[in-house]
Amino acid sequence: MFQTTRPLRFGDCDPSGIAYYPSYLRIMDGVIEDFFATFGGKREEMIRDRRMGTPTVTLNLTFVKPGFHGDDLNFQIRVRAIGRSSLDLEHQVSAIGATLWTAKHRLVATSLDTHKAMAWPDDFRAALTKHLETDNAYNPAT
Known about the structure:
About 25% of the residues lie in helices and about 35% in strands. By secondary structure, it is an alpha+beta fold. Strands 1-4-5-6-3 form a five-stranded antiparallel sheet. It has a two-stranded antiparallel ribbon with strand order 2-7. The two termini are about 25 Å apart.
């Protein structure tokens, strides 16, 4: 599991101080970028040198309770399945010990030249496999 904390800032919230859901997605994208960087997948190098993207194919979010300006958001990412070009992730985001939202998320490795799916590079596949957790009843989409 990859874990990190991000603050919920004023600009991430609506006028009442409650997290604005598109901000969650922007923050989550940064967390994913940091996750990939831990195993050599710096986004700028993926784009510039490998000509590789990782667009979202599916994203299913469940909001449990609101987050508020000033909360420290604890992000957890679990790798649940690795396909030839797909990657299934589970996200759990919490604050003050309570889950705020969860997500099931599928990314796909794509060529930025052809805009078609491509196999994960061997070094990425090896690193992602080290993070693979299959210890629950998660059932990835086919």
